[in-house]
Amino acid sequence: MQQWFVEKHGAVPGLVFIKVIHGLSSLFTDLIDFDDALNMQAAQLWSTNREQFTHRAREYIAKYCERR
């Protein structure tokens, strides 16, 4: 958007909204980096065998998460 438009008409709510959406999107998508994972074994399994990764994740959830 042209700077003169913002100066003449003030802040544009739609523009602010779009910036917030882009910020939230990058916040969540930038966190997915399996090359720099805290759990390298899980990251490697995710990359090589998704089915086994899902199975193991479900096992951990069943074992360590409390149902309410």
UniProtKB/TrEMBL annotation:
<dbReference type="InterPro" id="IPR016135">
    <property type="entry name" value="UBQ-conjugating_enzyme/RWD"/>
</dbReference>
<dbReference type="InterPro" id="IPR000608">
    <property type="entry name" value="UBC"/>
</dbReference>
<feature type="domain" description="UBC core">
    <location>
        <begin position="1"/>
        <end position="66"/>
    </location>
</feature>
<protein>
    <recommendedName>
        <fullName>UBC core domain-containing protein</fullName>
    </recommendedName>
</protein>
